[in-house]
Amino acid sequence: ETGVTQTPRHLVMGMTNKKSLKCEQHLGHNAMYWYKQSAKKPLELMFVYSLEERVENNSVPSRFSPECPNSSHLFLHLHTLQPEDSALYLCASSQDHGQQETQYFGPGTRLLVL
Amino acid sequence: KNQVEQSPQSLIILEGKNCTLQCNYTVSPFSNLRWYKQDTGRGPVSLTIMTFSENTKSNGRYTATLDADTKQSSLHITASQLSDSASYICVVSRGGGADGLTFGKGTHLIIQP
Fold it and tell me: Within 10 Å of residue A55's Cβ, how many Cβ atoms?
């Protein structure tokens, strides 16, 4: 997959650790997204960036902190997570932030919080 | 409340058979409906998108239908292949940005040889 890449693919961390998830898109898109996918639940939108500016204000705990240094890169900084934060974290990008835009997803980071 | 309900939750069929997945929604206003395929260990990939005026859209062996009056959509898979084993997610947009999207929980499809 060369469109949207995510690292690491798997991560195990303790509740007191600090880690970061990285996403990179090679599609020249202007919008990037973080989603959380838990078992038997719909995808949950966490953060949206358009032209490097955060544009959505979803209710996400402050232990998740996004960073978008440029239009190709998106980070999700994690600290003092809880076991219920264990999930698949998906990054996506789209040409622009609009209703008809197709989002292209990365393979995800499988996170386990112990 | 905006909701997307998918059925069945899971489905097992034999290779070569056809199947139909259902999506019912209560999202309002309606902008478009999209079906995604998510392979195990991968992110979702868009299969089809339909707006209010479209009632059918095909992508190879995948055919999606939309009845905007009854707020129902279906995804029909013809002559299934082992590679069709995946989760299929229905997503309805009420317009605006990504926060206007309502995701279903998905149907987990297994194709057996």
Answer: 14
> For B95, which of A43, A55, A99 is closest by C-beta distance?
A99
Closest C-alpha to B88, from B67, B61, B56? B61
Is A48's CB within 8 Å of B97's CB? Answer: yes
pLDDT string in tens for chain B (113-residue length):
889 999 999 999 999 999 999 999 999 899 999 999 999 989 999 999 999 899 999 999 999 999 999 999 999 999 999 999 999 999 999 887 777 899 999 999 999 99
Structure tokens at B101: 């999207």
d(CA B113, CA B104): 28
Q: Which of A20, A12, A8, A6 is nearest to A79 (CA)?
A: A20
CB proximity B102 to A under 8 Å: yes
What does residue A12 show for φ and ψ, rounded to 5 degrees? -115, 130
Show contacts of B48-54: CB within 8 Å, 24+ apart. B48/B75, B49/A100, B49/A102, B51/A100
B50 contact partners, CB below 8 Å, separation of at least 6 = B32, B33, B34, B56, B57, B64, B66, B73
- Could you tell me which residues come within 8 angstroms of residue B70 by beta carbon, excluding any fewer than 6 positions away? none
- Cα separation, A92 vs A48, in Å, equals 9
